[in-house]
Give the backbone structure.
Amino acid sequence: MTNDPLWRAAWEWRQREQDGPLSEAEQVEFKAWLTANPVHRQRYEEACRVWAEASLVPTRFVDADPDAPLDLEALRKAFHGGDDPSSSSQS
């Protein structure tokens, strides 16, 4: 998914919002991007969910190097793709 330019753009918008309030020009640009294609909104909503869920990850799992790139695909899979019912263990 990280190779998906729409996912990357959605994640960057979410990150920009988190960094602080968007300027008026940024708000106009964001709204235009969000409404240009229904998939934009889908990717943005997914990015928001992943962002929120990432805040639940215990800090011991976070790389101590703040300059290390975040593996968005691994994070996404950890929250959305990790529950494979066929691999559940039985007691």
Summary: The chain is about 60% helix and 0% strand.
